[in-house]
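Q: I'm writing a short explainer about DUF3817 domain-containing protein for a general audience and would like to include a description of its predicted shape. Could you first generate the structure from this sequence?
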Amino acid sequence: MDIVRAFRVVSIAEATSFLVLLLIAMPLKYGADLPVAVQVMGPIHGILFLAYVGLAYVTGEKLGWGLKRTVLALIAAVLPVAPFFVERHWTKPAAARPEPQPAGRA
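A: Of course. Here's the predicted structure. Afterward I'll give you a sentence or two in plain language.
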């Protein structure tokens, strides 16, 4: 599997696991006294988080991200839905991105 494709898959999985942990597992732990939800989801999210961080660095090198974009992608790992944005908008190769057209040209 291509490293960029692997990053895209892990990015979606990491963001989804973060949301499941926050919106389902944590309320079950504290609201329904079911700590097993976090005991199961926590390690899954942790592994996906570490994979995201590692793959973000490698993907950034492959796609030519600068230091700023790489750091922002790493910061995105700690925000619940930010990896969805990174996956959607930053993982396309430069050749696949549409080039901006100068104003006044059709």
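A: For your explainer, you could say: The mean pLDDT is 88.
Q: Perfect, that's easy to follow.
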